[in-house]
From TrEMBL:
The keyword Zinc does not apply. This is Cell division protein ZapE. NCBIfam families: ZapE (NF040713). Keywords: ATP-binding, Cell cycle, Cell division, Nucleotide-binding. It comes from Kitasatospora cathayae. The keyword Nucleotide-binding applies.
Length: 354
C-alpha cells in the first residue's frame, strides 16, 4: 500500500516527509494484517494505530488514504463526536442491562472489525469515564482502532484536576495501539495549496466588525427582531436570531455562553448547512467554557462541511488571544484561518479603531 500513499501525495502536489513516511509504512503493514489470510483463520487481532501531532501535518490525510484504499467491507469511519452521540442514544435503550455498554457497542458496530476515529480528544471528565468503558468494550470485541489526534495519549484530558482519572484509559490506549507522531516541518493546512490541506471552510467568510454593508456585501441580509426564533434541540430551546430555510443565524452569547454541548451542535448541523455566528468577542474577555464550546462548534461545522459566516468584533488574531482559551485552540485557529477574510494583511486592533 505504500505506493498508494506516494501516488496520492504526488497527485496532491507534495512529497511525503520522514514522519509521514513512517506513518504510511505502519498503516501499510496494518492493511496487510487486516487483509491477510491469518486474519480470517483465527490469527491474532492486529494492533491499531494512534496518529498524533500538530495541526496541518497530514494526519487525517494519511489515515484517509489508508481507509479508502483498504479493500475490506467491515470497516467504519466516523468522527469521534458523532460516534459518541450515537452511542449515548443506543446506550439509553440498554441502560437497565448489566452489560449495557457492551450491548450498545455491539449494536453500533455489528460486524465492524476496523473503526476509524478522526480528531480524538477529551476535555470533559464525564465523557472521559464513559470513553474508558467504550474503549474497553471495543477491544474486548476484537475491533481494531485507528485514530488521529492533536495530543499524545498521555496528553488527553489535560486538566490536572481530572487527568489522573483518565490514566487507566491512557494505559489501555497505549496497550492496544501503536502511537505514531506526525510532526513534520510543513504546515500544509496553513499553506492550503495541496490536497492534504483541503478545508471545508473555504466556503463562507470571516467578517469584522460586521456592519450592515459588510453583511450585505457577503450576501447576508441582517436579521430583524421579528425573525428571532426558538429551536427545540434535545428537549430544550435555543434562541436563533434568524432561520431561513437551510440557514441558521446565532449570536455567540446565545450559543456558546449558554450550557450547550457538542451533541446540541451535531443536532443543529443535521438541520442546517449554512451558519452565521455573530458577536464573536475577543475570547480573553469571556469564560474558558464558552471558548471551549466555540472550539467544539468549529470542529462540528468543519467536519460537516458547513458553510460558516463568522461575524467578529475584531481580527481573528485578536479574538483568539488570551488566557481563557482552550488548549487545542491551535486546531480552531488553523481551521478558521481558511475562511476568506480571516487573514487580512495588516489587520490589527489599531486599524479597527481607526
Amino acid at each position: 500500500m505504500i505506493e498508494k500513499f506516494e501516488r496520492a501525495a504526488e497527485e496532491a502536489g507534495f512529497v511525503l516527509d520522514a514522519s509521514q513516511i513512517a506513518a504510511a509504512e505502519r498503516l501499510s503493514a496494518l492493511a496487510a494484517e487486516l487483509t491477510g489470510r491469518r486474519r480470517f483463520f483465527g490469527g491474532k487481532q492486529p494492533r491499531g494505530v494512534y496518529v498524533w501531532g500538530p495541526v496541518g501535518r497530514g494526519k487525517s490525510w494519511l489515515t484517509g488514504v489508508f481507509y479508502e484504499a483498504l479493500p475490506v467491507r467491515n470497516k467504519r469511519r466516523v468522527h469521534f463526536h458523532e460516534f459518541f452521540r450515537e452511542f449515548h442514544a443506543v446506550y439509553a435503550r440498554h441502560r437497565k442491562e448489566r452489560n449495557a455498554c457492551d450491548l450498545a457497542v455491539a449494536e453500533l458496530l455489528s460486524d465492524c472489525r476496523l473503526l476509524f476515529f478522526d480528531e480524538f480528544h477529551v476535555h470533559d471528565p464525564g465523557d472521559a469515564m464513559m470513553m474508558g468503558r467504550v474503549l474497553t468494550s471495543l477491544f474486548d470485541q476484537k475491533v481494531t482502532l485507528v485514530t488521529t489526534s492533536n495530543y499524545p495519549p498521555d496528553g488527553l484530558l489535560p486538566n490536572p484536576v481530572y487527568h489522573h482519572m483518565f490514566e487507566p484509559t491512557i494505559k489501555l490506549l497505549e496497550g492496544n495501539l501503536d502511537v505514531l507522531e506526525v510532526a513534520g516541518p510543513q504546515d500544509y493546512r496553513a499553506e492550503s495549496t495541496t490536497g492534504a490541506a483541503r478545508s471545508q471552510f473555504q466556503r463562507g467568510a470571516y467578517i469584522w466588525p460586521g456592519t450592515e454593508q459588510q453583511l450585505r456585501e457577503a450576501g447576508l441580509e441582517p436579521p430583524t427582531d421579528g425573525e428571532r426564533q426558538r429551536i427545540d434541540i434535545g428537549g430544550r430551546d435555543l434562541v436563533a436570531r434568524a432561520v431561513r430555510d437551510d440557514l441558521v443565524w446565532f449570536d455567540f452569547h446565545e450559543l456558546c455562553d449558554e450550557r450547550t454541548s457538542t451533541i446540541d451542535y451535531l443536532g443543529l448541523a443535521d438541520r442546517f448547512g449554512t451558519w452565521v455566528l455573530s458577536g464573536l468577542p475577543e475570547l480573553t474577555s469571556g469564560s474558558r467554557d464558552a471558548a471551549q464550546r466555540f472550539a467544539n462548534l468549529v470542529d462540528v461545522l468543519c467536519d460537516r462541511d458547513a458553510k460558516l459566516y463568522l461575524v467578529a468584533d475584531g481580527p481573528l488574531a485578536d479574538c483568539l488571544r488570551g488566557d481563557a482559551l482552550p488548549i487545542d485552540i491551535n486546531r480552531t485557529a488553523s481551521r478558521l484561518m481558511l475562511l476568506p477574510g480571516s487573514a487580512t494583511p495588516g489587520a490589527t486592533r489599531a486599524t479597527r479603531q481607526a
